[in-house]
Amino acid sequence: MKKYDFDNVVNRRGTNCYKWDDGAMPEDIIPMWVADMDFSVAPEIQRALKERVEHGVFGYAMVPESYYEAIISWFGRRHNWAINKEWIIYTTGVVPAVSATIKALAMPGEKILMQTPAYNCFFSSIRNQGCLVEETPLLRKGDTYVMDWDDFERRCADEKVVAFLLCNPHNPAGRVWTKEELLKMNEICMEHNVRVVSDEIHCELVMPGHRFTPFASVSNDCLNNSVTLNSPTKNFNLAGLQIANIICSDAELRRRINRAINIFEVCDVNPFGPIALEAAYNKSEDWIDELNNYLFGNYNALKEFFAQNIPAFEVLRLEGTYLVWVDVRNSKLTSDELIELLFERAHVRLNSGTMYGQSAGEGYIRINIATSRLILMEALQRISQALQGVS
């Protein structure tokens, strides 16, 4: 029996919403680009935030002991990962956490390895620290991607590569890396003295038939050779509350990361982020499970629609996240041109694959399906009509 109504259409226009209220967009736009969801957050989170608002004073906030207990309990019971309190550093978001960790690990001019296509902010986070991006392209295999192990090892062997920035689950490829894959990644990295920085912000958004494994939970070597970045924000639709955690068992590296967090002045959080995290991890587990089933239904509806109406475009397998990667290489247009056409003709806003690496992303688009089924199907109908005679 369904407990939550994800079919409910929430009107987000007029709320200064980045996704829906960009002034450059037509009024009837359907935005399926930036990665946040159109669903109301879990009722327990709403109740906890409402109680805090009713207090009426919003001064500087401390992070209580119960905050750490919620994190430790969640990852212990849901992912069989035992976290110690002292490993946890809180901050405002995973992107600042990526930048701070790179600053702590690498000197300007050194290289950070990442799998492409890759989340676009990875590029800027690396370059903003004066470091160089080293790409190891993923390999297409059928309707998914796999590691190019030979290329990965060759690049790890470069003495200038000091860290590997992993995305687990992977955005935008939709992979949920297996325990065996994670173990092999670490073995290669350790052989070449490369630290692993694992961005696990989408860790709860996993489709049926797949299982998320925290990188640091795989083995003691994985734990000791890695830094984990996670947050409830993507999973529970809390991005605007700005709360995230860096988890690092290495005391000296943790000290350097903490120093970088203070240099960047992202060491304080607002009064609502910790409260939302506790309500999410302590009281909203059934909501995330039902959400994943709904997202899987959206994915299947989209895949069926493309097969019937736009068969020239291939929808890749979605194992995790709510971001669907679509192969549009049979189009007469480049990815950027296709996105522009759909914006102008269909009033649907999507992401061009080139955002995620020019060579790896050309010929692909990314679609955010975290919206009501009604809005999703309207967008797909618009896309199909706009592509008549083009694709």
From TrEMBL:
Gene Ontology MF term list: cysteine-S-conjugate beta-lyase activity; pyridoxal phosphate binding
Superkingdom in the source lineage: Bacteria
A Pfam family this chain is assigned to: Aminotran_1_2
Annotated family: Belongs to the class-II pyridoxal-phosphate-dependent aminotransferase family. MalY/PatB cystathionine beta-lyase subfamily.
Name of the featured protein: cysteine-S-conjugate beta-lyase
Organismal lineage: Bacteria, Pseudomonadati, Bacteroidota, Bacteroidia, Bacteroidales
UniProt key word Cytoplasm: no
Record keywords: Lyase, Pyridoxal phosphate
EC number: 4.4.1.13
Location of the Aminotransferase class I/classII large domain: 36-382
Broad EC category: lyase
Keyword Lyase included in the entry's annotation: yes
Cofactor(s), by name: pyridoxal 5'-phosphate
Gene3D superfamilies: Aspartate Aminotransferase, domain 1, Type I PLP-dependent aspartate aminotransferase-like (Major domain)
PANTHER family in UniProt: PROTEIN MALY (PTHR43525)
